[in-house]
Structures are given as C-alpha cells and as structure tokens.
Design brief:
Number of domains: 3
Strand content: 15-25%
Shape: globular
Largest sheet: 8 strands, mixed
Radius of gyration: 24 Å
Bound molecules: fe (ii) ion
Structural class: alpha/beta
Strand order of the largest sheet: 13-22-21-14-15-20-16-19
C-alpha cells in the first residue's frame, strides 16, 4: 500500500482541515474551537498546523493538498467579499437584513447596476483583520476579473508560505466532495451493491443538488446536477424572515415546525408551490425562472402568518419535495443504498421522513455533520480515490470514518490540581457518575480526543438524566440558554434504541443525523428531557462498543442504575460560545456555570 499523505482544507463556515495517511483519515480539526469564534471563516491555520502536528510531519511532506472550492465557487465580487468579511461567521441578524434591504432588493428586484455589497455593508472596515492573507488588494472600483486573480494569487501564496509545495496543491470542486464524504465515510456500506449518492445544499459552486453513482472500477461519477435547487436558500431566508440568524438558526425553525399546523392549503404552501417543483424530466428539484429572490418574495406572507405555522409549512414543503425526489431515485436507479449529504441533510426531521417513507431502498445513510465543514473529508477521499485509481489500487481499500474522535487530546497535568484545589477531585468511576446523573446532576464530559462536527458525541458533552424533573431549565438557566421550544439530544446504546424507538432505514446512525420516533406504548415522561413533546421524536446518537467504548460503558452502567441506557447529551459550551477545546476551557465552563461535576479523562471533579 502506498502511504500517501493528503491534507484537505475548507475556508468557509465552518473552516476546517483534515489529514489522511494511506487509505485512512487520521485527524481533523475545526478552526472555531481554536479561535473561539463560531462558524469561523478563513484559512484555518490552527487546524492545518494541528493536522501536521498530529502526524509529526512538515508541510512539505504532504503529497496532496486539496483546498475545497475551485474557480467555480467564485462567480462575483461578492464571493470574494463573503470570505473577506467572514460574513457567515460575523454577520448579525441586522447585518443580513441590511444587506438584503440595501443591496439584494436593488439588484434583484429593481434591476439596479450595483455589483457588490461592499459599500452598503461598510466598505473596508468590514474586511476582517484576522485573516492569514494580505487583504489590502481589495478595491471595489476594480473589476471582478482583476480582483479574483489577485485574491486567488494571495490564497495560493498563503498555502505556499505554510510550506506546501505548489505542485501538490489543487483546488477541488465543492459540490462533488459532499458525495465523496457521504459515500466513503460510511462504515457499513457495501462496495459491490448498487450505491446512489445525492446532495442538496445552498451553494455548491457548479451545482447545489446532484446525483452520482459509485462503481468499483471508476469510483464516484456524476450522473446529473443543477444549480437551481433553492430549498436550502429558501430555508435560510425564511429563517431571516423569522428574525433568526441564517446559516446558523435553521435548526431552530425545524424545531419549531412540529408545534405549528402544516396546512398544505395555506397560501404560503401554495406560494412555495408556484416557484419550486420536482422536475420529472431531470429527476431533480427545480426552481421556476420567474422567482427573482428568496427573501422579499415571501416576506409579506410570512409576516402575516404565525411564526410556528410558517415553520411547519416550510418544513412540510421541504419534506414533500424531497420525498418526491427520493422516490423517483428509487424508481429510476433501484439503489440498494442511498447516501445523502449537503447542508440540507442537516435537517434531521426531513431525514426521518425520507427514511421512513422509502419503500425499496435497503439503507439510507446521512454522514457526520453533512454541511460544509465535513467537506474536508470529501477532499481527502477525493484525493485518495484519484490516487488509487491511477495506481490501480482497489477502491474498497479506502477506509471509512470508523471513528470521528479525530481532534486533540490533552493530558490532565499537575497544574490542573492547583486550579481545582477548591473542588473535590476523585478517580473517575462509571458507577459514581451514573448515580450522580440519576440524582439530577449536570456533568461535563471531557474525555480523550475531541469529536469532529457540529454535534457533541460524548467526548466534549454536557450530560444529564433523560427524565429527572427540571433538568432542561437547569441547563438552560446557567449554561445553554437554548430557545424554550428546542429539545435536547440524547445518546443511547443500539439495543436500547430498538427497545424504545421505531426503526427506520437509517444506516450507521452514529452521528445524530436523523430523528427517531418514540414508540407509542412508551411513556413520554420516561424521555421527557430529550424527546420533542409535539411529535415524540428524538435526535439520538447511537453508541456502540466500537465507536466509543468508554461512553458505551457509562451508558450500560446507567442502565443498571436507572433501567434505561440513555443520557441527555448537549455540546460542552456556554451559550453563543464555541465548544471547549483545551482542559482550561472546560475548567472555565465548570467554574462559571452551575455544572455540578466534570469528567476530565480519568478524573471526576465536583463542587
Ligand atoms: Fe457545500
């Protein structure tokens, strides 16, 4: 086996990097954990360095450097400004509204000839200071061609400055990497059966919605794609119309949906139908040309409809169209398994709806954190596949993401004993912690390597009982301040999942990528802290011995004590802050909130 090293980099939200050796991805990091700015945008220098450090290599040792986003992702000055402003990380709700009111409305609806939102959003002052490229080249008076050439030059220079060899650097097509991540990351796939891969997202460069197939002889090949899939953007701009943050709060709209009435005879649903449809000719979801924009077109109708009803109708409309698309895939391609990625696949409720309603497909797989941060894995898999094909190495040697605990691990050093001298420190025991959880304690778990992605999967998690009274309020009051309608997620062992929740066609549901419905005969009170009261669904992480042994053991101990091998699991961070990276970050959360205890590797610290 040729042990090539590939490094993959993503520069938009969430900026991240991952590294592989031979057929396997070994480490991955998200930049926001280091710079403490949510959804960070920009060259992820800390993440790149962490990747190199993990393998103990120099930049020049990397054989292939793949940077997500080739020239097709840069279509206008705004694509460059999106990067320079770090828009998806730094904009507030008011900023997004301002941009729409003073730029997009004029450009799209009034046909004014303004090229960019540079000026209306504050000009040079908006260019963020914490970039790793020299941003002085940007002059809005220059044309796009010039600015793009200057930007791409500086982008390349930044990577060369790190020490990567120019001949090893390639800029990769964005959209297809979602397919690489969706297919190759799956553990229990079968390379020989009929595998169809699809993705749906807001903006993917050439296409934002596509279908591809995998064959052992040729790898992943595009079948069809479109850039007219606009349901991801519709969800984004409806989020803004509901006064929530686009690129961030879409999950809150989804969480609100079950409380509302999803009336398909409502004007809003009918209005959506006027513009978005399933195109039987192409087999893809399409948008009619008469739709000029996605924010103002529906604004008035949304403003005149109750917020929960808007969410319910939007979610219903999305689910109905997606199901039409997937059912057509079943008829046309007769796949054994469907692999589904892209930002829209973050919608865990739609994923349950699809996987429950597919009739002939055996497996439905949604990969870890299918939005853009996981496109870095797509980058590694893309480079590995191309290398294997060229060297005639069978593609079934490419290793899946057997384990997504790919981040940093920190040692609990002596210095921390001093920092924690006012607290009780003991050796960690599953039994002791399970008793505490049972009795209503809220405990931070900081253990081993950090998990990658937007979901905490046990190693950087805050844990609590699934049914102890008052837990949701306790966590919300001092730590998370989640919106009152949002339920918490849970971790559960595979045996327990089948006992309490209905099965669906989801394959490898290890990453909280799909909802599950609580069985009718199970009392909701048993899961009241982790199941949505309006539709009885939960967002479980299924824990097995293989994917997290120590966490699995904790859940089993909890089962002995409480009768159910499940736990409330929310990410280890304070409201609006990033997930903890270092032990100091974790101690800081412990000291400044009402957390009752904290597990740090093999120690348990309590107040
Ligand atoms: Fe994407």
């Amino acid at each position: 086996m040729n042990e090539i090293i590939t490094l993959s980099v993503y520069e938009y939200h969430n900026a991240s990097a991952s590294i592989s050796r031979g057929p396997k991805i070994l480490a991955a990091f998200q930049e926001d954990r280091f710079v403490k700015k949510k959804n960070e945008v920009g060259i992820p220098l800390n993440s790149i360095n962490a990747c190199l450090k993990y393998l103990n290599i120099k930049a020049s040792d990397v054989d292939y450097i793949g940077i997500v986003n080739d020239q097709d992702s840069f279509k206008s000055k705004n694509s460059i400004l999106n990067f320079l402003f770090k828009r998806q990380s730094r904009y507030s709700v008011d900023d997004w509204k301002r941009e729409n009111n003073f730029f997009w409305q004029k450009k799209l609806l009034q046909n004014k000839k303004i090229e960019s939102f540079f000026k209306v959003m504050g000009g040079k002052q908006r260019i963020q200071k914490d970039h790793h490229i020299n941003t002085k080249f940007y002059n809005d008076k220059k044309n796009f061609k010039y600015l793009n050439a200057e930007f791409q030059k500086r982008r390349l220079e930044a990577y060369k400055k790190i020490g990567f060899k120019e001949k090893n650097i390639s800029f990769l097509p964005h959209y297809i990497l979602h397919h690489y991540q969706a297919f190759y990351s799956c553990i229990n796939k079968n390379f020989s059966q009929k595998n169809i891969i699809v993705h749906c997202e807001g903006d993917g460069g050439v296409y934002n919605h596509a279908i591809s197939k995998f064959t052992k002889s040729r790898g992943i090949e595009l079948i069809k794609g479109t850039s007219n899939f606009n349901l991801g953007r519709l969800y984004q701009w409806t989020t803004l119309n509901l006064n929530m943050l686009p690129y961030h709060d879409e999950y809150k709209v989804m969480g609100l949906a079950p409380y509302g009435d999803s009336d398909i005879n409502h004007n809003l649903y009918k209005n959506f139908q006027k513009f978005f449809y399933f195109n039987y000719k192409t087999g893809l979801i399409d948008t009619k040309k008469k739709l000029k924009d996605l924010y103002f077109t529906f604004k008035q109708l949304i403003n005149n409809t109750r917020f929960d009803k808007v969410a319910a109708i939007l979610q219903k409309f999305l689910e109905d169209l997606l199901l039409k698309f997937f059912k057509n895939i079943e008829i046309k391609f007769k796949p054994h398994s469907i692999f589904y990625g892209g930002g829209v696949a973050m919608n865990v409720k739609a994923n349950l709806y699809i996987s429950s309603n597919l009739k002939k497909t055996k497996n439905f797989f949604v990969p870890l954190s299918p939005a853009d941060e996981s496109n870095v894995f797509g980058g590694n898999f893309f480079l590995i596949e191309k290398h294997f094909l060229k060297n005639q190495i069978p593609l079934n040697n490419i290793k899946p993401l057997e384990n997504i605990y790919l981040g940093n691990k920190y040692k609990f050093k002596k210095i921390y004993f001093n920092k924690l001298q006012n607290y009780k420190i003991s050796k960690y025991s599953n039994k002791h912690v399970s008793e505490k959880i049972k009795n209503g304690d809220v405990i931070g778990r900081y253990f081993g390597r950090a998990e990658f992605g937007q979901r905490a999967l046990g190693n950087r998690s805050i844990l609590a009982s699934i049914d102890y009274p008052g837990i949701v309020e306790k966590i919300n009051k001092k730590i998370k301040s989640r919106d009152f309608w949002m339920p918490f997620a849970l971790s559960i062992t595979d045996d327990e999942l089948n006992k309490y929740f209905y099965k669906n066609r989801s394959l490898d549901p290890f990453y909280m990528t799909t909802c599950y419905k609580l069985k009718d005969e199970i009392d909701l009170n048993k899961f009241k802290n982790v199941v949505h009261p309006a539709d009885r669904t939960g967002r479980p992480q299924i824990v097995t011995k293989m994917n997290n042994l120590e966490y699995f053991d904790l859940l089993n101990e909890l089962k002995k004590i409480t009768g159910v091998g499940a736990i409330l699991n929310t990410s280890f961070n304070i409201h609006k802050k990033t997930i903890v990276e270092t032990i100091d970050d974790a101690i800081n959360v412990f000291k400044t909130t009402n957390l009752d205890g904290i597990i740090i590797n093999n120690y348990y610290i309590s107040k």
